[in-house]
Write a structure and sequence with these properties.
Blueprint: H1 11-26, H2 31-41, H3 47-62, H4 64-71, H5 77-92, H6 97-102, H7 109-118, H8 126-129, H9 134-156, E1 162-166, H10 173-182, E2 188-189, E3 196-199, H11 209-212, E4 216-218, H12 221-230, E5 237-240, H13 247-255, E6 261-266, H14 269-282, E7 287-291, E8 307-313, H15 335-350, E9 353-363, H16 372-381, E10 385-388, H17 390-395, E11 411-413, H18 415-418, E12 423-430
Parallel strand pairs: 5-6, 5-8, 6-7, 8-9
Antiparallel strand pairs: 1-3, 1-4, 2-3, 9-12, 10-12, 11-12
Helix pairs in contact: 1-3, 1-5, 3-5, 4-5, 5-7, 12-13, 15-16
């Protein structure tokens, strides 16, 4: 049900959207997790109701500062959430004063509608026009310039498509596309990843037989390209140093053709346990899971200089994923502490790579502090590492991506240029016969 179809929206749906939004704004948990909990608590909500609530709440989170500018200051959390929902419907969904008043939604509808009607967006400062916090808007302007920062911000504020990554152990992309079409959910190939499929609309894919049989995983196309930069070969020893939820782990294991050894490390044992059923579904048995205390865990020493390939998918601000996680941009982020952690993780992971091996440092951030600056600092301390041009590695696999290389030879993907989440990756080669300071 389109949000813009006001005649089919009930007053109760507006209250539920405001209730969920209030919860999200009052807590520090990710919005998607809180939404999942909320829908479990309200199992009687139909699919259309859930769709309206989810779209409305995410819309409010994407434009939170602009909507608050229009809604006016309000110290009461419940009233604040109702006003934000009302302003979003007026500003983004084509609702008018009459539609809002007919619902009996308790907000100052006339005043809000007047503010929306009188809004001169061109006169607003960039952070409001771009729906970004000031700290992030300033950094994007400095890095990308006015025009590109505006285009990037606009792309970050649009919903992302649903990307799938086909499982090479099960079959080809063409086979998966046929399975999905037969199940009533057609998808088209992604432009860059040879294993990607894309749907512009959401779908209950987790309920499908093709998903339960492990033919694919949900994974952004940009994330798929990071694994292809690692390019592990069968029978190699490979390390996924920050495995997280395991999306790249699954891809790496399949690219290794289920042979060799893939070591997945993470500081969160629960995440690794949640990965086990996904490994079974994918048919992978070459992955070994290790929960570690931190990057200095002494148990890592026994694997020093042993891996052919190492992936460091570093914990980061996540600002490249704002299409999917708009609540991230309104959190407080301690960038100096975060980048110090990234530098320590990169140095520790590098000690696991054998001479002649390949290390890939990646983030889903758009910020130079978390990307180029971290790698440059590492290279100053480790003269036995050299940059490998990322696009050359992808080109060797038949993947040509325009406007994706930085001057240094790193990979930079952005939603406004490439249709992916924002990703950065540096490919580093450890030379033979040199001693590292790491």
């Amino acid at each position: 049900m389109p949000v813009s179809d006001a005649a089919k929206i009930h007053r109760a749906q507006l209250f539920k959207a405001a209730e969920l939004l209030q919860r999200i704004l009052a807590a520090s948990l990710p919005a998607d997790r809180q939404m999942e909990v909320y829908f479990r608590e309200h199992r009687n909500m139909g699919a259309r109701d859930r769709g309206f609530v989810a779209e409305t709440v995410y819309g409010c989170l994407r434009q939170l500062n602009l909507l608050e500018h229009l809604a006016g200051r309000c110290n009461d959390g419940e009233e604040r959430a109702r006003r934000l929902v009302a302003v979003w419907l007026l500003h983004n969904a084509g609702w008018g004063l009459e539609e809002l008043e007919q619902k009996g939604f308790p907000v100052p509808a006339a005043a809000l509608a007047q503010r929306v009607a009188e809004l001169d967006a061109a006169a607003l400062p960039f952070p409001l026009r771009a729906a970004l916090p000031e700290w992030l808007a300033e950094r994007l302007l400095a890095q990308y310039g006015d025009a590109e920062a505006a285009a990037l911000a606009a792309a970050l504020n649009r919903p992302a498509p649903l990307d799938l990554r086909c499982n090479p152990l099960r079959g080809s992309r063409e086979q998966v596309a046929r399975l999905l079409a037969d199940e009533g959910f057609p998808a088209v190939p992604t432009p860059w990843s040879p294993w990607g499929l894309r749907r512009e609309s959401r779908a209950p894919l987790f309920r499908l037989e093709s998903f339960r049989e492990g033919w694919y995983e949900v994974q952004d196309e940009g994330s798929q390209l990071i694994s292809l930069l690692v390019a592990p070969a069968p029978r190699e020893q490979v390390v996924d140093f920050c495995a997280g939820a395991g999306g790249k782990t699954l891809h790496l294991g399949a690219l290794m053709n289920n042979s060799g050894s893939l070591f997945a490390y993470d500081v969160a044992p629960r995440r690794l346990e949640n990965l086990r059923p996904r490994l079974r579904r994918a048919g992978l048995h070459n992955v070994r899971l290790f929960a570690i205390e931190n990057e200095a865990d002494p148990r890592l020493q026994r694997f020093a200089a042993s891996a052919h390939r190492v992936l460091v998918d570093a914990p980061c601000s996540g600002v490249g994923t704002l299409r999917r996680n708009p609540d991230i941009k309104w959190r407080t982020i301690d960038l100096p502490s975060l980048t110090a952690t990234q530098a320590r993780i990169l140095a520790a992971a590098a000690r696991m790579l054998r001479p002649g091996g390949r290390l890939v440092y990646a983030t889903c951030s758009l910020l130079r502090e978390e990307n180029e600056a971290v790698v440059e600092g590492f290279l100053r301390e480790n003269p036995d590492y050299r940059i490998q041009p990322a696009l050359e590695i992808l080109a060797g696999q038949g993947i040509e991506i325009p406007a994706a290389a930085t001057p240094e030879g790193f990979l930079r993907l952005t939603p406004h240029r490439h249709g992916t989440d924002g990703f950065f990756a540096a490919v580093l080669h450890r030379q033979v016969g040199r001693v590292s300071a790491a």
